[in-house]
Amino acid sequence: MESPLDSGNSLSKNLNSTPKRDNLAFGFPIFLLSESIIFVSFFVTYALLRWKNSTWFPPGVSGLDIPRAAINTVILVSSSIVLYFAERAIARHKLVKFRRLWLLTAALGVIFLIGQVIEWRDMPFGLDAGLAGATFYLLTGFHGMHVFTGVVLLLYMYGRSLVPGNYNAGHQGVSAVSLFWHFVDVIWIILFMLLYIW
Description:
Blueprint: H1 4-52, H2 66-91, H3 95-122, H4 130-161, H5 172-197
Subcellular location: Cell membrane
Transmembrane segments: 24-49, 69-86, 98-118, 138-158, 179-197
Family: Belongs to the cytochrome c oxidase subunit 3 family.
């Protein structure tokens, strides 16, 4: 027969564990929603500025390097696809496969960031080149900061996967980081359309 003390302890454990999962499942989408509002405000501001200024780029510059940006876009979108298969692997308890795919996602994120740094280095104008320079570096820099954060989170979760039995009780952290990474990818696709295609 279970004593009232044991019953209280088990109830306390349930109360302590359940809200923690619920908070992550509820709180992280709210965080991403707030980030979305920031990005949308940037997108709208950029669109209005671009619409009101017929001469957008500095003299001698006709546009941005679309092929290079397209390659970077393919790399980032590919990382989301790889991450999707990593999520499927952890759901099926295939931990080794999960680790490989998860680490590959982080590597693709690093390659994307290197591509951004090279693009910045080779840009024909700087931050001080009027609205085009200010908005380009602000938007790509702010997004790059999110990609860097995503890579750090991916590596952190990879490290947690090396702890024996860490994901036996569930893998909510993996789901949260995956959601963040997919969010960052969607934001980049919108940025690519706004900055490079328009």
